[in-house]
């Protein structure tokens, strides 16, 4: 019992950690507000410190320059997004449905994200740089996040664990394209977006059917 109690106490965050987390949250909250107000092209480091009720050296101590703050804010938003994604993955037990609903949720979530949309309108290069520089890490995180769900799926056609990284990369590329690049097909509503992604997933089947016909035709010659 004593060892168990010691492990519980050790697992509890210390006052120092709680204080650090609170200051970090204040800085990122202030950064989000300042960027919404002034945009990504403005130098807002001093405004962030003022809004957070901290000195500029303190902000530098915890995060660094404005670029580092934006990257930390991006990381926090990714963590929030993954937390919101969990109920979507829990909502169905079939691999294809999970992929479709994941794309629909992520794209809809991004389209309603005020800071992301402001950046895409005013300075899209900021978003594109973050998505490209963090792409590999995000793909691996998504694959790891999805792994438990595909391990227990009853869908025999679902990807096995070794295929999750390619699936996660497919998901990442489709989502980033839908978020950042205007298209010809109308995908504005969740319903139309769901139809589009569902049809997109059917394309490999069509390709396989055409390949089979070619093989059959060759065999008859």
Automatic annotation (TrEMBL):
GO terms for molecular function: DNA-binding transcription factor activity; transcription cis-regulatory region binding. PROSITE patterns: HTH_TETR_2. It comes from the Bacteria. Pfam families: TetR_N. Residues 21-81 form the HTH tetR-type domain. Residues 44-63 bind DNA. Keywords: DNA-binding, Transcription, Transcription regulation. The keyword DNA-binding applies. InterPro entries: Homeodomain-like_sf, HTH-type_TetR-like_transc_reg, HTH_TetR. PANTHER family: HTH-TYPE TRANSCRIPTIONAL REGULATOR BETI, HTH-TYPE TRANSCRIPTIONAL REGULATOR RUTR. This is AcrR family transcriptional regulator. It comes from Hoyosella altamirensis.
């Amino acid at each position: 019992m004593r060892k168990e109690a010691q492990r519980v106490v050790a697992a509890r965050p210390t006052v120092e950690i709680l204080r650090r987390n609170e200051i970090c949250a204040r800085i990122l909250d202030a950064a989000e507000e300042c960027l919404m107000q002034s945009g990504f092209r403005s130098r807002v480091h001093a405004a962030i410190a003022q809004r957070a009720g901290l000195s500029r050296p303190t902000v530098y101590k915890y995060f660094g320059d404005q670029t580092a703050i934006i990257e930390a804010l991006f990381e926090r938003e990714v963590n929030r997004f993954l937390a919101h994604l969990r109920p979507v993955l829990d909502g169905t037990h079939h691999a294809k449905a999970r992929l479709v609903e994941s794309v629909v949720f992520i794209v809809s979530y991004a389209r309603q994200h005020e800071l992301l949309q402001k950046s895409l309108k005013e300075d899209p290069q900021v978003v594109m740089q973050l998505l490209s520089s963090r792409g590999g890490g995000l793909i691996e995180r998504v694959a790891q996040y999805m792994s438990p769900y595909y391990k227990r799926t009853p869908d025999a056609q679902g990807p096995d664990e070794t295929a999750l990284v390619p699936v996660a990369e497919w998901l990442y590329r489709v989502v980033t394209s839908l978020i950042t690049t205007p298209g010809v097909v109308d995908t504005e509503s969740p319903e139309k977006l769901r139809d589009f992604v569902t049809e997109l997933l059917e394309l490999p089947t069509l390709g396989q059917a055409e390949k089979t016909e070619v093989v059959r035709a060759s065999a008859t010659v």
